[in-house]
Hints:
Blueprint: E1 5-10, H1 14-25, E2 30-33, H2 38-41, E3 50-53, H3 55-63, H4 67-70, E4 75-76, E5 79-84, E6 91-93, E7 104-107, H5 108-120, E8 125-128, E9 133-138, E10 143-147, E11 152-160, H6 167-172, E12 176-192, E13 199-205, E14 208-215, E15 223-232, H7 233-241, H8 244-255, E16 262-265, E17 269-278, E18 282-283, E19 286-288, E20 294-295, H9 303-323, H10 331-360, H11 364-379, H12 381-392
Parallel strand pairs: 1-2, 1-11, 2-8, 5-13, 11-19
Antiparallel strand pairs: 3-7, 4-7, 5-6, 9-10, 10-11, 12-15, 12-16, 12-17, 13-14, 14-15, 17-20, 18-19
Helix pairs in contact: 1-5, 1-9, 9-10
Amino acid sequence: MDDKRDLVILGGGLVGMTLALAAARKGISSHVIDRADPEELTAEGFDGRASAISTASWNLFKNIGIAPALEPFACPIARIAVSDQLKPGRIDFVPEPHEGSLGRMFENRRLRLALYEAAAGEPLIAFHPRAEVTERVRGTHGVAAKLADGRMLRGSLLVAAEGRRSPTREEAGLALAHWDYRHRAIIAGLVHELPHEGTAWEIFYPAGPFALLPMRDDEAGNHRSALVWTVNEKDAAGTLKLGDRAFLAEVNKRMREVLGTVVKVGPRSSYPLSFQHTARIVADRLALVGDAAHGIHPIAGQGLNLGLRDVGALVEVLADGMRLGLEPGDAQLLARYERWRGLDSLSVAVATDGLTWLFGVPGKAASAIRRFGMGGVQRLSPLKRWFMDEARGVSGTLPDLLKG
Length: 404
């Protein structure tokens, strides 16, 4: 049976599945193909993997109907505290009362559960989990993805949402600017003595940022945060091998009791950090979204939000074109998507890369200069407002789906 749909989305992660749901709200059908097993990705237990959802991204979740399922598990970000080694001169980003929070923190597991549940009830989405793509076809009249079991899933536009190592991007020959930071992010869930009061901490050390992201208390009332600790690649293996007691001692030393004593650490994982940006995010009947198009440092927690802006822009462009009788794979529509997203994604990528290098300069003099500059930002309301608008994702030309 030939089940041809508008989109063939390769990758059913947070960005790919959100794209399918957002497209469905506009009457656009899709096949979503993913290698992973949803049961493994939604298994019980907090492993520290969490995401900051900006105000604009939360608007997207509201507009596609998954916000009610997520709201009970949200931890609002009431404040972002930025510090150079916890020395004097930090910046506190606090929104005005009428603006609500700076975003919301969620366990990735909760995000996936909400997306899978919504997709299961949407007839315009055909989800194919645990599926291996063996061939990608982009022709004059359509696209297709051949699966290992022989099925051929057809559509008008191929969308690569496969992450940083996108084989579809590589196969299409889209050039990638890339460099390795020679750092690794260590992820873990923490239980600590004092409540975080909705504060996200970004503490910069010469070896890299040390981020504490607020999470909801667990059912027993324990105070929790997600840790994203950047270490030199040469030190990563040793840090990961530390026993829980030694690891907690290292964490407590860097936190200096801003949340009291850390009393428990969950499972640890890690991933290498690099910069990558694709100058071209479209080709014939192909569009890239999320990390397949741009992979940035987690220093500002904007990676997923950048991908969700891709989602909003692509869906708006496709819906506008289809109302005029154009098919989703039309070259004019893809060119508009690329123009819209190219500058925004590049500016965010360059800004996060710049912050990484700026705070990575060692020495007391460099630290003093940074703290002097941060003190200036703390006193200049317009500059703080600009930074907060960027964090909330409400700057620039937003797709309608990301507006309140």
